[in-house]
Amino acid sequence: MQNFLSQTRRISEEINTLTEYKEKFIYISNTKSKSVLKESEERNLESQIKVLNNMFSQLSSKIKLELKKMSEENEKIQNEEKESNFLYETRNNHWQVLTKKLVQAINSYRESQVNYNNIEKDRLKSQYIIAKPTATEEELEELTSEKGQEHLKNAFSLGSSSAKQMYSRAKERSNNIQKLAESVEELCQMISDLDEMVKSSDVFIDRIGVSMSSTKHSVKKTNKDLESALRYQRSAMRIKRYIFAGIGVVVLIILIWLGIKFLGNQNSGNGGNNN
Length: 275
Prior knowledge:
Blueprint: H1 2-34, H2 39-80, H3 86-131, H4 137-141, H5 146-155, H6 161-274
Helix pairs in contact: 1-2, 1-3, 2-3, 2-6, 3-6, 5-6
């Protein structure tokens, strides 16, 4: 049990690390979105965001696998120790707290990614409109799709070096948006997997509850049977005592009657001798 508690503390600390990643992500993304930066500075921040996304994905996946293994161990313990649910319930309570905490951390990071991605989409649209003021709404929506690359290429088709540079940055932004969208989708899938784990655990707990309810019903029935038998035994013993007491009274009356009769006969005999 001590090893289990140490494991839960470590996992909890790792989830706190995920929260720290989210705070760093928000800080870096806000710096990039709200500051006037050089191209090199923007790329540096974009690289930091990619690193954070990878670190978050790797650590959250690791924790998810550990929690899955912990859930399987909990179920194994419950199946082996049918007479006592204390150990299972203690472990499962810790597991549920950690799983919900992980879901919250992942969802919070995902929301930060979505907010940042929406800002980047708006900036990409603004770049495109500058290059092509007559851009349609459909073209703007397609900028982060496969067609978007062709739209960007056509919009920045001028031969000047500045146009080529603008196209290069717009293309990079479009690629970053798509990669971030994939990261968001990955986190959504992870949340779905964790929710499924929790549901499976709840079903198992419900099954345990039914089993415990059945056991309690059997215990109650047994107790009722024992109480009925005890009442019957007490009643039988009471009747026996009444019978024995009645016989005792009858015997006592007979003895008294015989004693009186004996004394009466003895007195009669003594009177005859005196005469």
